[in-house]
UniProtKB/TrEMBL annotation:
Region of interest called Disordered, as start-end residue ranges on this chain: 64-86
Underlying gene: ACSL3
GO biological process: long-chain fatty-acyl-CoA metabolic process; neuron differentiation
Protein name per Swiss-Prot or TrEMBL: long-chain-fatty-acid--CoA ligase
PROSITE patterns (UniProt xref): AMP_BINDING
CDD domains: LC_FACS_euk1
Protein family: Belongs to the ATP-dependent AMP-binding enzyme family.
Alphabetical UniProt keywords: Fatty acid metabolism, Ligase, Lipid metabolism, Membrane, Transmembrane, Transmembrane helix
Source organism: Salmo trutta (Brown trout)
Domain of life: Eukaryota
GO cellular component: a single term: plasma membrane
Amino acid sequence: MGNHSSPNPQLQCSTMKLKEDMNPLLLQVFRSVVWVYSVITFLPWYLLSGAGANLDRARRVKARSVSGRPAGPYRATNHEDGSQQKLVSSLHPGVDTLDKVMDYGAARFPERNCLGTREVLSEEDELQPNGKVFKKVILGEYQWMSYEETHQAAVCFGSGLAALGQRPQCNIAIFCETRAEWMIAAQACFIYNFPLVTLYSTLGGAAIAHGLNETEITHIITSKDLLHSRLKDILLEVPRLQHIIVVDSKPTSWPGFPRGIMVHNMDAVQELGSRPDNMVVARRRPVPSDIAVIMYTSGSTGIPKGVMISHSNIIAGVTGMAERIPDLDETDTYIGYLPLAHVLELSAEMVCISHGCCIGYSSPQTLARQHTRYVGTLYWTSSSIREQKGSKGDTSVLKPTLMAAVPEIMDRIYKNVMTKVEEMSSVQRTLFVLAYNYKMEQITKGYKTPLCDSLVFGKVRSLLGGHMRVLLSGGAPLSAATQRFMNICLCCPVGQGYGLTETCGAGTISEMWDYSTGRVGAPLICSEITLKDWEEGGYYSTDKPHPRGEIVIGGPNVTMGYYKNEVKNREDFFVDSNGQRWFCTGDIGEFHPDGCLKIIDRKKDLVKLQAGEYVSLGKVEAMLKNCPFVDNICAYANSDQSYVIGFVVPNQKQLMALAEQRGLRGSWEEICNNPDMERDVLHIITEAALSAKLERFEIPRKIRLSAEPWTPETGLVTDAFKLKRKELKSHYQEDIERMYGGK
């Protein structure tokens, strides 16, 4: 994981410096105008805003070393008196397994909306110039299932699976897109104690077959699209498979499958389970130590590993996450669109279910209205589903208050909005910049800015529905510039978190009133963190001014280990003398005096150059991703070479504008392959790197422009958009040899 820091809290590497280029006199005049207006219009609110209390909360010590040593372990401090917390493992009394979480929600909020899906009004195929067919859909309003209906659907589906031969504590797989049926199926498995094997929908055939065979799957839950596009070709490689349950309601016949495999519709399985003779079958309820999920990682470093997660592990992680979301209750609405096979999304949705929140489902393609004035397409993908132009995006219809996001999506919002700002008239741009810098000053003092929010940032905020109050970021590093932008322009705090599949996604989350950037907050109340010296990288807990080292996480949220992989278990996990499990993350962090953690390096990303200098590839990438010409970048270095090279997915709008300035013509691929464009972009990146205070040996000396974006579907990034360095190296091997002079 790369460095989260940025040398300047403003928009980095941008052609428009929001603060440095602003006339101080104009900013002072703007402050005065806003102050006078606030006194007249918002004085009662301003006096009661609690800015002082917010500032005190932001500045307080949030974690301390239990041992008193700089290495830790560090635990969260109590809000009232600053004492150390005991590690917490449960959210509600007696709710110690995931089936009880759903029972709790159904009993307490039976009529409350639970899972929502937009109605598909019509759909049509649209042929693209490149020959691909996109399915255009027109969507209506959200259709909801209550907590009681969701619970009953899960009970019937689980009963139906049992009638099809699925047995307690025998693994069952789900290979499906994020949707309400995914969560219903998961709840059914939790209720009937079927360990749920999760697989990313973007995994390749070999990885899918590996996961299904390793876990000895006989039953799999999937969608019609994935069955035909991904699963059907590997069925002969999964000899134990007997039953395929398709979550789509139609069609009811499935010809052309190998003998011995039966294909069912989810509705039919639920109907089977609702029969009186099947409903009376006693279920074996799980105990906290039972495996709830075997979650296969996205395979950023090779074959995916299955992480064994117990019921008590997830309960502990959910408890820690929920504590960092202020005022979380049944009035909140969460929008779910990230892969539910990823621990971030699954944990976030379980947090919501444990508090009676509504969960409305979306997708990266329908999240926000297409061709919007500010954002355009949020997210590149090769998926064949697109929302019809002019339709409302899911955020506009749902108006969520809570959302989890990966930095890739937030970076795209940030860059596209700032591109639009640069295209504004000088008066509009000046107003935006003044408001931006004024608000930045105010939020760091604990104040809100209702005038700026309503008059200047309202349209940007409406991109996510206009009601967002908490935005959680995880899965990869979030740059300081993007985090600051989201805080200011989307008018809601961004809680940046740090966690791994091996810790149920739980580790740290920054508090909502802490507007500092580049840090991931203090340890959650379910976990503690210690720093382990890493001599090779030169990181020690005795370092000044901040103790540094490899991050090791301990607590009830640390999982049971890797499925059938004792070698990796011994390498990465250990149990201390008190019986507590710990996980060695491989990430390098440092603790600040207030107990907040900052990620500064990753062991696997550190490369020693020929002359002996150490280069953190993740740090280089994090610094350069904010350059407006860079949509994505992978830094690469060989130990037998003296310099760094890079592969860059350029921003199409910026690059085409530069090509037009240079008088170059051609297709997108031709522009990217033009040596002159490579030189021009390299010069821009070099200037950005120098501005970001990178060392000369850290700056890429040669680059390759990629016309193809890196998406999970291409296999070059994970579903959380982490770079797959092994696959990227293989993909660009010829370019590596060229840029290193054939060596």
